């Protein structure tokens, strides 16, 4: 995969308990909600691009790193839902990210 639509990424992350917060810039920050609290260690910044904007591989790599994932395949599984919230939290704990 070399690109993915920004709306697909946002929707997929919101299904995994990522909540948007507003910033002073033109970006939204998404923080992972864990045990009812926003965790600042797992966050992602997404700009307000045009609807339907494609996010290219270079930016996807940065997103993957921000989400503490190991590969584009893990990222795709997280966004497209084969990877559940519980499995994602388990991955973060096993790798000492949270």
Give helix % range: 25-40%
Mean pLDDT metric: 88
* Total discrete domains: 1
- Report the principal-axis shape: globular
Number of strands: 5
Low-confidence blocks of residues: none
Structural class: alpha+beta
Order of helices and strands: EHEEEEHHH
Number of helices: 4
As a whole number of angstroms, the C-alpha radius of gyration is: 13 Å
Beta-strand fraction estimate: 25-35%
Main pleated sheet: 3 strands, antiparallel
Oligomer: single chain
Spatial order of the strands forming the largest sheet: 2-3-4
Q: What distance separates the N and C termini?
A: 28 Å
Could you characterize the architecture of this molecule?
The chain is an alpha+beta fold. It has one domain. The protein has 4 helices and 5 strands. The chain has helices at residues 6-14, 57-66, 72-80, 85-94; strands at residues 3-5, 18-22, 27-34, 37-47, 54-56. The strands form 2 sheets. Strands 2-3-4 form a 3-stranded antiparallel β-sheet, with helices on one face. A two-stranded antiparallel sheet has the order 1-5. The longest helix is centred in the middle third of the chain and has 10 residues, at 57-66. The chain is globular and about 35 Å long. The N and C termini lie far apart (28 Å). The model has no long low-confidence stretch (mean pLDDT 88).
């Amino acid at each position: 995969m070399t690109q993915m639509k920004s709306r697909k990424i946002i929707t997929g992350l919101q299904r995994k308990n990522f909540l948007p917060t507003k910033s002073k810039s033109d970006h939204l920050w998404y923080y992972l909600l864990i045990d009812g609290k926003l965790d600042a260690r797992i966050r992602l910044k997404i700009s307000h691009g045009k609807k339907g904007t494609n996010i290219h591989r270079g930016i996807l790599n940065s997103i993957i790193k921000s989400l503490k994932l190991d590969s584009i395949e893990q990222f795709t599984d997280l966004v497209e839902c084969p990877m559940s919230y519980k499995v994602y939290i388990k991955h973060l704990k096993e790798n000492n990210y949270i």
